[in-house]
Amino acid sequence: MMNLGEKLRALRLENGISTTQLELLSGISQSNISKIERNVQSPSVDTLLKITEALGTSLIDLFDISDDFPTDLVNLVNTAKKLTPQQRKKVTEMIQSFLN
């Protein structure tokens, strides 16, 4: 099974996109994309959403979530995709506050 960085790199290459092109599409710097692909840096959810959106895929596809993944969590991810970056940040902060 591929790790996150390998999966992102494979998806990027499948789409014929360079890290420089992905930077332009996602707003994530080429150096950060490279670090994520090499598993040197762990991306935030916001960063992953920007990258997957630029690649025309979703977090669900990225993590190969099977059909037995809870429907409510799938719905949560799909809803989060519709939020603005500021809204996603606020929701992420709220969820993190529950965990602290």
TrEMBL record:
Keywords carried by this UniProt record: DNA-binding
Keyword DNA-binding: yes
GO cellular component: cytosol
Listed GO MF terms: DNA binding; DNA-binding transcription factor activity
Organism in which the protein naturally occurs: Peribacillus simplex NBRC 15720 = DSM 1321
Chain ranges of the HTH cro/C1-type domain: 8-62
Matches recorded under InterPro entries: Cro/C1-type_HTH, Lambda_DNA-bd_dom_sf, TransReg_Diox_bact_type
The keyword Cell wall biogenesis/degradation is assigned to this record: no
SMART domains in UniProt: HTH_XRE
Protein name per its UniProtKB record: HTH cro/C1-type domain-containing protein
